[in-house]
Amino acid sequence: MRKRLVEVQYLRATITQEQRDSFGAMVASTIRQIETAQFPARSGIRFPQNGCLSCPHLGLCLGKQDMVDARLIRRPGGDLGWLDELHY
After folding, report:
1. 25 located within any domain
2. pLDDT in the model for residue 53
3. Which of 2, 71, 75, 88 has the most Cβ atoms closer than 10 angstroms to its Cβ?
4. Domain count of the chain?
5. Is 35 part of a structural domain of the chain?
6. What pLDDT digit, counting tens, does each position of 1-60 carry?
């Protein structure tokens, strides 16, 4: 709800040292990303009703193979045989 006057609320809370450290790590990571101009696509910024329009992983999270196939570009010449040697 929008109000004409700003209303400030002060709420008491306590956090653990682990939560402080986690927040500090997140802030440090964000600073590094800003300083190196790394701005990954985020859904919901320009297209809040259709975040998938700007997502670099379109279809993967939804399990929609047809979307993945439409966006995936395979170029000849790459040797992917080493992938068969990976063990899970």
Report:
1. yes
2. 61
3. 71
4. 1
5. yes
6. 677 888 888 899 999 999 999 999 999 998 888 788 776 655 555 555 565 665 666 666
- For 27-80, give the secondary structure using H, E and C: HHHHHHHHHCCCCCCCCCCCCCCCHHHHCCCCCCCCCCHHHHHHHCCCCCCCCC
Domain of residue 27 covers 17-75
Show the tokens assigned to 22: 């986690």
Residue 62 lies in a domain: yes
Q: How far apart are CA 3 and CA 83, in angstroms?
A: 58
The four Cα atoms 80, 69, 57, 62 give a dihedral, to 10 degrees, of -120
The pTM for the full model equals 0.39
Q: CA quadruple 33, 38, 40, 41: dihedral positive or negative? A: positive
